Amino acid sequence: MSVRTGVYPGTFDPITVGHMSIIKRALAVVDKLIIAVALDTGKAPVFTLDQRAAMVREEIASLRGAERVEVKSFSGLLVNFAAENNAQILIRGLRAVSDFEYEFQMASMNRRLHKEITTVFLPASETTQFISSRFVKQISKLGGDISSFVSPNVEKHLRKYFDEEFK
């Protein structure tokens, strides 16, 4: 029996409860899940690649099914990373209709580059569909309450970062 391996890519700057929701549901779709923390995102992350990967590892450590999850960083084309890791499925979360257009185009390009890799879209739950790492960072930077968007551990990392940034 072959192992269905999925890759859930992202910047995870930082990982949110929305990401965790997608991770939990992805585990119902695949036998093995690789969370791929991206270096080349075109974004300016708050945390380094190693810090982001470490936070993801911390978050999934107590997750049911954590033994089926691996966290890796990657650079370059996602489909090449997926192929190198024998993954057949790319997991993508969708929050809104605006996400769908971009993600659909990306899925089509990825399919053209590696036709054996399929993209599976998982819609965000109604309780997390509005959460984005960008908003979480902005709220944290301005001193707002982010406790319902991230774990206490991630909140601590953000508070520390913004406390040091404004010293």
SSE string, helices as H and strands as E: EHEHEHEHEHH
Helix content: 40-55%
Give the distance, in angstroms, between the N- and C-terminal Cα atoms: 56 Å
Indicate the structural class. Answer: alpha/beta
Tell me, rounded to a whole number, the average pLDDT.
93
What is the CA-atom radius of gyration, in angstroms?
A: 16 Å
Sheet bearing the most strands, described?
5 strands, parallel
Ranges where pLDDT stays below 50 over 5 or more residues in a row are: none
Can you name the CATH architecture?
3-Layer(aba) Sandwich
CATH superfamily: HUPs
Provide structural commentary:
This protein is α/β, with parallel strands linked by helices and 167 residues long. The radius of gyration is 16 Å and the shape is globular. It has helices at 17-26, 49-60, 78-84, 97-113, 133-141, 152-165; strands at 5-10, 32-38, 69-74, 89-94, 118-123. The protein has 6 helices and 5 strands, in the order E-H-E-H-E-H-E-H-E-H-H. Helix 4 links the parallel strand 4 (89-94) and strand 5 (118-123).
Write the layout of secondary structure elements.
Blueprint: E1 5-10, H1 17-26, E2 32-38, H2 49-60, E3 69-74, H3 78-84, E4 89-94, H4 97-113, E5 118-123, H5 133-141, H6 152-165
Parallel strand pairs: 1-2, 1-4, 2-3, 4-5
Give a brief outline of the structure.
The protein has 167 residues and is of the alpha/beta class.
